Amino acid sequence: MSGFFLLQGASAAMRHPAIIAIAVFYFIVVSTIGIWATRRTKNASDYFVAGQGIGIVTLAIAAMASTLSGFAFIGGPGLVYTVGTGAVFLVLSASITNTMGAWVLAKRMRLLGEARGLITVPDAIAARFRSPAAQGLSATSILVAVVGYMATNFLALGLVIDAMFGTGLTLGIWLAMLVTLSYTVAGGILAGVYTDLFEGMVKTVASVTVFYFVLKAGGGMAGISRAITAVDSTFLGPWGKMPALAALSLFFVFGLGSLGQPHVAHKFYMLKDPRKLKWYPLLMSVAMALTLLLYVGVGLAMRALTATGTIAPLVRADDATPAFVLGFTPSVVAGIVFAGVIAAGMSTVNSFMNIGAAALTHDLPRAFGRRVGNELRWGRIWTLALSLAAVIVAQLSGTLVAFLGIFGYGLFAATLVPSLAIGLNWQGATREGAVASIATGLGLTLVLETLAYFKVFSLPTGVTVSGLALLLSLLVFFAVSWFTRARAASQLDADIRLVMEV
Amino acid sequence: MITRLALSFLFLSCTAIAGAYVLAFLPGGAPPWAAWGLALGSAGALSSMMALGATRGGKLRPIALVACVLTFLVVGGAFSLALILPANEGKDAVIVLGFPLRTAIVLYGVGIVPILFLPAMYAASFDADTLSDDDLERVRRAGQERGA
What we know:
The complex is a heterodimer. Chain A is mainly α. Chain A contains 22 helices and no strands. In chain A, α19 runs parallel beside α21. Chain A is globular, with a radius of gyration of 22 Å. The two termini of chain A are 43 Å apart. Chain B is built from six helices and two strands. In chain B, α1 runs antiparallel to α2, α3 runs antiparallel to α4 and α3 runs antiparallel to α5. Chain B starts with a helix and ends with a helix. The interface between A and B is large, with 81 and 78 residues.
């Protein structure tokens, strides 16, 4: 996140006519999709699950787009530049998680949509365990993480817009919110999914193109490696400059934690033909691999270029991507990359706007035994309210915003993986286990992250709050389900049992 | 039976990771061998979770079984080699496929090799073992009966 602050320094170079023209073209396309989707959004099902009418290619690319936020283009390469290959452990599991997600979640979620017409992730947990408490707790976790994620991305987008158009940060944040809000509040997830499709394609093209220039500037991957190993004997080690325990801990959290990301799991409801899931792992894995080339390549290339003295060491690590594209690629490519950065932020934000609004409109009222009369109207109202809340948070101090953004992934993982991913595949899991694990994940993440933020307490090297919270949440889920196992069979409805058995 | 086995393996993987974390709290930090708990525990957690999801009616069909075992061997094997092989990422590093040897094993072994077999195995087993037209029809019927 902090990486976006450097963009203010690069703003003069970013105001090149080609870069601005591509950014303007990007906004026009997104607005056009928003208008088209608004005309097709007639009810809550259209608004929250695109009327269960999207194709598999759209699903896969939209899921990829919302998974890879602006961090994949700015913060990630900066981290690679700083700690070397250790930073790659955040994304290394992507080769496995898409197939794992397809086997563990995709079919079950889509069939739940078919059998029950469910529209949210907490809906699935509630249906599985017949538990309004589990639905309410999981919706609360989603809300807490969503506001932080949205604020972080609004701030990032505001900085990019300011750097490109000279709007000033405050106006940049508000413009970012208004553009994203305009198509999300009107066209709901239908607009979100199709803009995600476009944004995903922009990201992939940007990543592959930049990787070509990475190889060209560094003399191929071997040339980059030789330049780095000549001056640093740990940077290109298997764990980079991190202890092995820390790198492997990232692999665990981002690997298993991928099963608890609601903005991805939620998209499985939207697929028109469930049988097309056959191609989901292939499409998603290829799209992710191509889009992550920039993440891995730019940080390594910039380290090699500093090692050979071609460029001066970066003042801030997160300068890596902007400095590389402005210095080593043509303006058109730089324009596509900065459009890709905007795309990354907006596609992530619109997904969170939608699941956050669904939590407020749908899940929390149901957890308290109530139903909202007009979910479409209230969905739009809550989308607007959440966006305003996130913009206000985005304008608070940078460290607080960064803090809120950091624990989102871990919070989702610790609260949703046991009850959702294991719960949908193990008939012996119990409601008590689900509630206890969600409460454990939520409580531990909030308490430990807050204590760490205020420097009251810190974990030893190699242990992260997200890793510890995910692990304890899993163990609590197993333990409580085991102690209450006598009740498991009576907590399953016949249609849910069928969904779990096919 | 298979579900229980997958869950046991998942639980065992979690305890291996928990063991590594507990060792990190020791005075002086975790000993170097603590990383084995996370290396094998992470590989085991992902493979067993995949097996849990791929199990149908208490059975894990051959293609899915091979996919899960292969994932554990490839990921666990790559991490193990990185932990076993001597460090040589300095001036005299042997560069393989663009990276020093141990790094190439991890980046290609964990980051690329699974893409070469997992999506293909999933697609190959989909019609027979994952979701057939008949399965879909049964779920739709159950949904309609519940709604009626």
